[in-house]
Amino acid sequence: MVVSPKIAPSMLSSDFANLAAEAKRMVDLGADWLHMDIMDGHFVPNLTIGAPVIESLRKHTSAYLDCHLMVTNPMDYVEQMGKAGASGFTFHVEVAKENWQELVSKIKSAGMRPGVALKPGTPVEEVYPLVEGEIPVEMVLVMTVEPGFGGQKFMPNMMDKVRALRQKYPTLDIEVDGGLGPSTIEAAAAAGANCIVAGSSVFGAPEPGKVISLLRTSVEKAQPTT
């Protein structure tokens, strides 16, 4: 297998009042990562969680906390997120065009895995330099909805970006986020996505474990056999 599947339930869809229990439930049901949406109310209109919540959750789980920072000034968050116990730090290319090299370096120095995200309107070519940099990002997150709110419909035309990335970088972790579930996973997996963020489709399911398992199987089946 060229890239391993990583299923990341989006904790934005969980019961925030019982975050530790929800995290444990997802890991017990087979989740590889827990996806944490950090929004600043500026880069996106919504305001969610920050480092204090990550720090609190970290005391209750050893899971990989896949943090997606929908913030205008990602540099301001690196130190606090590292100290809080974030595992991955994914910033948006739209706000890091000038300083991404320094940002990636700081993320790694703080003990986190650097990733870059792009909004639906951003051309995929904008992340190529970051994947090919001297200190490269280790994951690209292709947003399949406009970032900011859960429960939106999957945008199938974003799969062109995933395909382009997978052809260019066969071993890169490529994540998709937005509207992923049983009805859309085949398209994402076939295009080459291996890290799958799923919120409503997991948390809203009668048997979330079955959905996590289905998402993983779809990614595994779509892997090239050579």
Task: Describe the structure in your own words.
This protein has an eight-stranded parallel beta sheet with strand order 1-8-7-6-5-4-3-2. The model has no long low-confidence stretch (mean pLDDT 96). 33% of the residues lie in helices and 19% in strands. The chain has nine helices and eight strands. Helix 6 runs parallel beside helix 7 and helix 7 packs parallel to helix 9 (208-222). It has helices spanning 19-28, 51-58, 78-84, 100-109, 128-131, 159-168, 185-191, 200-203, 208-222, and strands at residues 6-9, 33-39, 64-70, 88-92, 113-118, 139-143, 173-177, 195-198. With 226 residues, it is an alpha/beta fold. Its cofactor is Mn(2+); Fe(2+); Zn(2+); Co(2+).
Task: Write the SSE topology.
Elements: E1 6-9, H1 19-28, E2 33-39, H2 51-58, E3 64-70, H3 78-84, E4 88-92, H4 100-109, E5 113-118, H5 128-131, E6 139-143, H6 159-168, E7 173-177, H7 185-191, E8 195-198, H8 200-203, H9 208-222
Parallel strand pairs: 1-8, 2-3, 3-4, 4-5, 5-6, 6-7, 7-8
Task: Name the structural class.
Answer: alpha/beta
Number of strands: 8
Strand content: 15-25%
Following the backbone from N to C, one meets helices and strands in this order, namely: EHEHEHEHEHEHEHEHH
- Overall pLDDT, averaged? 96
CA-atom Rg in angstroms: 16 Å
Estimate the helix proportion, in percent: 25-40%
Model regions low in confidence, pLDDT < 50 over at least 5 residues: none
Largest sheet: 8 strands, parallel
CA(first)-CA(last) distance: 9 Å
Overall shape: it is globular
Strand order of the largest sheet: 1-8-7-6-5-4-3-2
Total of DSSP H or I helical runs spanning 4+ residues: 9
Family: Belongs to the ribulose-phosphate 3-epimerase family.
Keywords: Carbohydrate metabolism, Isomerase, Metal-binding
Pfam families: Ribul_P_3_epim
EC number: 5.1.3.1
